[in-house]
Amino acid sequence: MSADSSPDPSPRGHVLLAPDRFRGALSAAEVAGHLAAGLRRARPDVPLLELPVADGGEGTAEAAIAAGWRRVEVEVCGPTGRPVTAALALNGRSAVVELAEASGVRRLPGGKPRPLTASSLGTGQLVAHAVRLGARRIVLGLGGGACTDGGAGLVQGLGGRLLDALGKELPPGGAALRSLHALDLRGLPDLSGVRVVVAGGSAGPLLGPAGAVLAGGPRRGATREEMRVLDAGLRRWADLAEDAARRRVHDLPGAGAAGGVGFAALTFLGATVEPGASLMLDLLGFTEKARGAMLVVTGEGTLDARSLRGGAPIAVARGAARAGAPVVAVTARRGLTGEQLRKARIQAVYALDGIDRDQDRRMRQAGPLLERLTVAIADEWLPPAAC
């Protein structure tokens, strides 16, 4: 635990709790809930507002739902073809669809990677369902995916057909794309009035050293030989998909996101790519909720150099600074220097490893430990409790 500047001596208003998830331990909503529980005990007279946030990765749909968007559940195909119940978030004519909900690593049976055959089919089904519900703006979060299929499954989930030289439907997964001969896109819905925005980070192009296979394949369990197979499949897919869509996007930033699902979104959905964290804060109404706050509390599991490259806590800190509110962060482990925190507009960091050095225990007890951290936050940043 450390502080890098003095708290405001005359705070006013509410405390806004806007954390991201602690990966492998707590969702963003759970982090916010534990912070709220601790602060209510420490300062029961201070109004709290919980606003779990996300950066477009896993937990994006849940963050929107926690902010008041409607949860819509639908049965779709998981990454291995097994049915799963996935949720999307709906608010009027806007929807948030998350790859991890339908095609994520957490949907793999037994957690076993299937790099050659895992498919994004269910994500396409989620997008199609959002369109049927009347969504005209769809935010597509692409973190936490299990597949390296170039988004071919996404196209199939929307009603497209991928055919081999005999006119037979290809099986799912990136490896099968080596046999792709033709695309039948007549089953795709009319998306002319639908705007799709990929909540992206720093993903590279579809192919090459920074592409979907070489940069992301190992994370999805692919061996070197499997990566060669997948690379050949994605090259074949890129050639035929771009010819069919009459659009060249495979070299664009973001095309390699989520094993190439970004490529399919750019090619067939006409998607644009925007920084995920700032996009989500806009959707969640962060600016309005931060106005008049005496303090904003953000955080994530590990606050380090990767957080500086588009992480939600950094976007929260910058947004709060524009609203004139001080920001502190909670984390399991701090990996940023005081100078980095100052530039990120974060005044103080409170870390679980300052309470418990055992990593496994910190994961198991993250919630109660966060509640303990709030005592110091309240003492250092909030007015004394009324007598």
TrEMBL record:
<dbReference type="Pfam" id="PF02595">
    <property type="entry name" value="Gly_kinase"/>
</dbReference>
<dbReference type="InterPro" id="IPR036129">
    <property type="entry name" value="Glycerate_kinase_sf"/>
</dbReference>
<keyword id="KW-0418">Kinase</keyword>
<dbReference type="InterPro" id="IPR018197">
    <property type="entry name" value="Glycerate_kinase_RE-like"/>
</dbReference>
<keyword id="KW-0808">Transferase</keyword>
<dbReference type="GO" id="GO:0016301">
    <property type="term" value="F:kinase activity"/>
</dbReference>
<comment type="similarity">
    <text>Belongs to the glycerate kinase type-1 family.</text>
</comment>
<dbReference type="InterPro" id="IPR018193">
    <property type="entry name" value="Glyc_kinase_flavodox-like_fold"/>
</dbReference>
<protein>
    <submittedName>
        <fullName>Glycerate kinase</fullName>
    </submittedName>
</protein>
<dbReference type="InterPro" id="IPR004381">
    <property type="entry name" value="Glycerate_kinase"/>
</dbReference>
